[in-house]
Design brief:
Elements: H1 2-17, H2 23-37, H3 46-61, H4 66-71, H5 76-100, H6 105-112, H7 117-126, H8 131-156, H9 176-195, H10 201-215, H11 225-241, H12 248-279, H13 284-291, H14 296-306, H15 310-337
Helix pairs in contact: 1-2, 1-11, 2-11, 3-9, 3-10, 3-11, 5-6, 5-12, 5-15, 6-7, 6-8, 7-8, 8-12, 8-14, 9-10, 12-13, 13-14, 13-15, 14-15
Length: 347
Amino acid sequence: MALALALGAGGGWAASLANLPLPWMIGAMLATTLGAAGRLPLAMSMKVRSVMVAVLGVMLGSGFTPEILSQMAQWSLSLAGLALYAVTAGGTAWLYFHRVCGYDRVTSYFAAMPGGLSEMIVVGTEMGGDARIISLSQSARLLLVVLILPFGFQFFLGYDPAAKPTAGLPLGQVPLSDLGVLAACGVVGFFGAKAIRMPAAAVVGPMILSAIVHLAGWSQARPPFELVAAAQVVVGAAIGCRFAGVTLRLVTRAVGAALGATAILLAVNIAFAAVLHSAVDLPTAALMLAYAPGGLAEMSLIALAIGADAAFVATHHIVRIFLIVVLAPLTFKVLARGRAGPPRAPE
């Protein structure tokens, strides 16, 4: 883990010098992915990741302001469209994995779901899917989406990586009272969400509590820059470490297959964003990120980086996660009843 963090921090620093979009996360992700491909002994503790994701949750919650409450009525149509998006995107990607890549039905189904990475791996394995393929497919999709979207916004929409800060003040300039409030939001929000088994508890719980605190006017502070940069390094390194210990042949096959699936998911994403943009008065960039088949923390960070409404993006991803985590396993069971039984993954 020490090697992964050192490699991730070095990659993030290099990416920041190169003025890449979202440098600390993307640099860490690329550095550790390359290290994993080179068979370096890399690992990341999910407990450490959860702590740092909680920091990002607090930061996202600080973006909720009273002005946002008046805009939420405009979000109803785009929120309602998430269910149709999940069915369309997941169903299309399932056909691709099953018919083109040759994965069995169970593995294809859970590899195709656009969200709920950890939950899809666990549930898909329990139902007979290939845990390695599901894990690599979901991880590769996340890696590719995190890479493609920031550079896409930079090249096609003119986003300047240096123009928009993604965090608050330096650590030494944040009052201790504000640091205490933010820390309480992270700790209480995380353990409270975990106690009620909320999906993505590490980010959703702190975000909700931080949003309440900031909407109530008890604090206007954001987590300090250094802490947010460290959180991005850990999140990026955790993505890269998912490829550690896996044969290069399997990684190449999984990433190649995931590239096609990611293209399909992004195409559906762009189509939904275009349709919704014409139907509601919401920016296309925010809609693309809200419907993007990436992680809640990662897509919200990109929203902050390009100046999009991070609260809008985060809210949509929370709803999408709930829909997929709750409905995807139930839907699979219903579909499986119509057959002799769900097929087992090949040994």
